[in-house]
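REQUEST ID: PR-0412
SUBMITTED BY: lab tech R.K.
PRIORITY: routine
TASK: structure prediction, single protein chain
INPUT:
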Amino acid sequence: MTGPLILHIETATDICSVALSVGAQQLSLIESGQERSHASLLNTFIRQAVAQAGKELKDLDAIAVSKGPGSYTGLRIGVSTAKGLAYALEIPLIASGTLENMASSVHSHAAVRELITIHGERLLLCPMLDARRMEVYAGFYTLESDLFREVSADVIDEESYQKILGSHQVCFFGNGADKCKAVLDHPSAHFIDGINPSAASMITPVLKKYQLRQFEDVAYFEPFYLKDFIATVPKKKVL
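STATUS: complete
OUTPUT:
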């Protein structure tokens, strides 16, 4: 196995995921869907992923992080950890879009392969992340992972994406797609369950960025939050 040794961190949703790769080959993957666990699990997962592959942190050639959109807290924890490691180890920091990562890896799913066989280049991939209520973070990609429509925060109703669905078949997936099934009732809309962000899905797009030397400035890089964070005050309990 040849190529750069890269640590991948994915914390954009409730899933805390860490992978280690050399070139295009995955060496290890540690992940958990336990809610609000990133702060307690991430550093442990990093140590486990590196140890499972028989490597050490000093062996790394780069640190990669899923940059969003997604959970404000999850992204902040993942990015701050990635920046700290990149700075301490004096290695490059690579950031890859969460939805881009999902789109680049979904081709291996059997149901998606079937859709590709049937519809070919008319099929678009639309990863969606839940943004609460009927809002989602969504992006549309071609089968070559080129951006067809920019990533945005969309409020879903019966009229959503009608122009795109009128000219293309669309495969919707991700936890945001789950709540859209009943609303996006269109013959060109296809929904695939069980596809979530994972550090494993970062390996291919991150390797391309490494080869092109598309590195981030460790001092100034910030996550792609897409929406401003709005803090809420818990309601007081009535005794």
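NOTES: The CA atoms of residues 10 and 66 lie 5 Å apart.
REVIEWED BY: pending
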